[in-house]
Here is the input.
Amino acid sequence: MIKNVSGNYARTYAAAQADPAKFWGDIAKGIDWIKPWERVIDDSRKPFYRWFAGGVLNTCYNCVDRHVKNGRADQLAIVYDSPLAQTVRKITYRELQELTAQYGGALRDLGVKKGDTVIIYMPMVPEAIVAMLACARIGAVHSVVFGGFAAPELAKRVVDAKPKAVLSASCGLLPGRAVPYKALLDEALRIAGAEKTPCMILQRKQLKAELIAGRDVDWDEAVAKAKPVDCVPVAATDPLYIIYTSGTTGKPKGVVRDNGGHAVALRWSMEAVYDTHPGDVYWAASDIGWVVGHSYIVYGPLLQGCTTIVYEGKPVGTPDAGAFWRVCQAHGVNALFTAPTAFRAIKKEDPNGELVRKYDMSKFRCLYLAGERSVPDDITYAKKILGVPVVDNWWQTELGWPALSNCMGIEPLPVKPGSATKPVPGFTIEMFDEDGQPKAAGEVGNLVIKLPMPPGTLYTLWHNEKGYEETYLSRYPGYYLSGDAGYFDQDGYGSVMTRIDDIINVAGHRLSTGQMEQILAAHPAVAEGAVVGAADPLKGQVPIGLVVLKSGVKKSEAEICQELVASVRAQIGAVAAFKDVKVVKRLPKTRSGKVLRVTIRTMADGTQIKVPATIEDDTVLPEITAALKALGYPRVGG
Ligand code: COA
Ligand code: AMP
Here is the structure.
């Protein structure tokens, strides 16, 4: 365990900078290896670096079996709490070992072998976590797809990952409705031309699915008749999982994580960043479809021998804004990780924190917020109602674990609301100008990370090393381009302010406005369109669309707008939250014909102060202001 003493952050950070191989080599001893690594950092193919080359381990063994062996067999590994299914289920480490062995056997029976890919399209049920671990157990590479995505998005992931099998459920549960996952899956496999892919389906009593004879197998039956399997040795550098994330095009990027570096970094992050230790109860209120779910519902807590909470519910409405505190009391939660938007939803309903006072929160030590920017008010509200430290941390799907944070297990530093604090040891972060020069304190620049990045970060895009290099490594040689912009203050505290591309962040969900524009442009009545992310008091950002129609279109504007909203929902999914679109006569453009999206965005946010000099014709702006006003923007004070 790290000693939490004054000056320790600076010392730890300096140690990681001075000799990364020694630093990470020491930390790697926290993992059980079948064969130790030959080189901590393999830099023989710069700019592509690999961690713990030559090492052999099994991630499932490290998450499960070793805890059974080391005296944690009867400790709870997973607590599933679903206000939507009105169920609580508790699984010990011993039971989890049996389950992963059994599920691993069922995967083998489906024909899945080491190195094969498996898509997991599942709601927040414990079977989904066991399935991920079972893949790791047999050396298969899982790709979990968020349930809120529509069939065409799932289909893109099927096409790219080419799964040997798909694991899914009959339905997911949302307040007041069941989402028919199986129907969406069938449609996705049809779109992908992969109808023959074997599927294992968990039948949930809330909405059963029809199974396709000869292709689909019933989950419970398949697991019951499977023979348990042991953990197979895999190379540290073998892939553990692929997670798709929005890029600037409609094609999602398959971020790949390895086994060795991931296990080392994730376990260490639990103690160093989250001050969470074996036996603690850790709850990441997210979804396994997102990176937060991968890292801090599944792998981080289990690698560290904690109890992880799997929550199938919302922060509000299931049944009220005290839902989080009920779960904390019921299961003795020590640390909670969620997105700021969840707290904004709670604040709306319980501004004075009256509900939290109804529950015993004596075991609760710290709240961690990430996934989107925390504005100072998010932090102060959470701190006021909880009375514990509130820690903002910045990272992204690609990185897998925090890069900027207050490292609570190393040395808690004074909090500055609005800042994610300092670089985590192992990450060298700069804010660069266009020429690759560091910006002065207080000035916003492109957030870059010096190579090699620490273990646990992505090492490529699935079957697309060229895309990895072009997207992330080519802009500033020797550095990873994050796609975010931010600044360091005089004390070295980092704040991440905005994206430099067309990615927006809606309730902690990462989406591409470019992709939405492509969908709008595909409508037969639309000549052109622009989608921007506008500030929203609850979700942080929401997408809004402005479209110009082709001449001679007969349909009413209202009908076309309805069709556009339906089309984004059908193509991307409800999670895109695309509800606001308006027809305009023209879009603001530069003299060279580029749509001035930033101008539209700042107008929607109410922060537009001056008209860009490059604008072709500024008489277009009053109409844009009127269209935005009709949609109800700005929603946040400028
Ligand atoms: N399957 C299918 N649809 C889903 C889904 C799932 N797993 N999860 C969400 N959706 C749907 C919702 O029902 C909603 O549809 P609607 O427009 O028909 O109502 C839409 O996708 C948007 O969902 P969401 O972003 O969850 O918004 P919301 O308005 O339902 O709830 C919050 C708002 C703030 C309560 C919610 O975003 C939340 O709990 N956030 C917590 C943070 C979080 O999980 N972040 C993830 C990254 S850490
Ligand atoms: P995702 O890959 O879905 O986790 O989204 C990552 C993106 O969310 C980052 O690139 C940022 O734009 C944003 N983000 C995540 N955490 C923070 C934070 N603490 N502060 C500011 N932005 C954040």
Q: What stands out?
A: The pocket of coenzyme A (ligand 1) is lined by residues 147-148, 172, 174, 179, 286-287, 290, 292, 314-316, 338-339, 341-342, 345, 371, 507-509, 574-575, 577 (CB under 6 Å). The radius of gyration is 24 Å. The mean pLDDT is 96. The CA atoms of residues 74 and 92 lie 5 Å apart.
